[in-house]
Specification:
212 residues, 2 domains, six-stranded mixed sheet, elongated, alpha/beta, 9 strands, 39% helix, Arc Repressor Mutant, subunit A, three-stranded antiparallel sheet, single chain
Length: 212
């Protein structure tokens, strides 16, 4: 019978309890380079002590994974957490969360190879500037505006980009906009509504692009 298993490197008891409440696993595996401090959780808990090295973490954590059980990962963004995120990306594990500013935020895991060449190029440009719009996609890649909007909506649907509605600028006023880039958009003209590169999306884009 399959189990719902949570893998985490969280250290705080309260954070771990929040993770359990979020995922509601049948079993939890806590990964740490030190001896576990807490052992009285509501779910069956296993403890895996590993060295804080890439090879050790990937080898031992990957050995846990199988095709029968349902896995979730919640990470604290330290070195171990980054390695676990890499593993989540390689194995397309959903849901995957990161503890950010005291809150659990779900990451948009992108299966390896799911991004086409054109999406990858668009995301590289978006990552460089922090945002992108259909006008810049049309200008840089020769893609029609309608097709560009479809690409951007697709990337927004998986959480990599976030839609940001702009206003119409008067000539010369556009520089005051926090997300305006004079080397990407033409000055003095009405800008298109923007798609911002999200912080969590940038992490997953990096992992997806480097895995291809």
């Amino acid at each position: 019978m399959s189990e719902k298993i949570l893998i985490t490197n969280l250290k705080s008891k309260n954070n771990i309890q929040d993770a359990v409440s979020e995922v509601k696993p049948d079993r939890m595996i806590i990964i740490s380079s030190k001896k576990a401090k807490f052992r009285d959780f509501e779910v069956k808990t296993d403890y895996m002590k590993i060295k804080n090295r890439f090879e050790d973490i990937i080898h031992k954590a990957n050995a846990i994974l199988n095709d029968e059980d349902d896995f979730s990962i919640i990470v604290r963004p330290d070195r171990t957490g980054v390695y676990l995120l890499w593993l989540a990306q390689m194995r397309s594990l959903n849901p995957t969360y990161v503890l950010s500013h005291g809150e659990l935020q779900q990451l948009p895991i992108i299966p390896a190879g799911a991004l086409g060449e054109k999406e990858s190029e668009i995301l590289k440009l978006a990552d460089c500037h922090g945002f992108i719009d259909s006008k810049s996609v049309n200008k840089e890649f020769g893609i029609t505006k309608d097709s560009a909007k479809e690409y951007l909506k697709k990337l927004s649907d998986v959480g990599i980009l976030k839609y940001f509605e702009t206003k119409e600028f008067e000539a010369g006023e556009e520089k005051a906009h926090a997300y305006y880039s004079t080397d990407l958009l033409e000055k003095g003209k009405q800008t298109e509504d923007l798609y911002l590169m999200t912080e969590l999306g940038r992490i997953m884009v990096y992992m997806a692009l480097t895995s291809e």
